[in-house]
Design a protein that fits this description.
mainly beta; globular
Length: 116
């Protein structure tokens, strides 16, 4: 996650701006990363209607990847506040399977925010 300076303008992670991105890179997470690491096989999709959702300290994000979207091995994913560039809220490296053009996948993730 990249933090903006205190008092800086921040683009909200709301339905108009938030996106889930998937890619095929297996490069380990590093704190300075600001985007998915995949060179070409990566795609961001906007939020489904009514997402993201928040309840107490849990945020839920959901995007749908149609038959023509992201047909490759899903090895990484992230949450963003723009369709390109913008801020990456989180990135996770994990094998989620290989999506084909015969499939529509719905990606849902939840983030739990805790305070010390």
């Amino acid at each position: 996650m990249v933090q903006s300076g205190v008092g800086a303008a921040v683009t909200a992670f709301n339905n108009a701006n938030a996106h889930i991105g998937v890619g095929d890179s297996t490069t380990a997470f590093a704190a300075g990363q600001t985007d998915l690491v995949a060179a070409t096989n990566k795609l961001r999709k906007p939020m489904d209607a009514t997402y993201p959702q928040g309840a107490s300290n849990v945020l839920t994000f959901r995007s749908t990847f149609a038959t023509g979207d992201a047909n490759f091995a899903w090895q990484e994913w992230g949450i963003f506040n723009a369709s390109s560039a913008g801020t990456m809220l989180s990135r996770k490296v994990e094998s989620l399977g290989t999506k084909t053009s015969a499939q529509t996948w719905q990606f849902t993730t939840t983030l739990t925010v805790t305070t010390a």
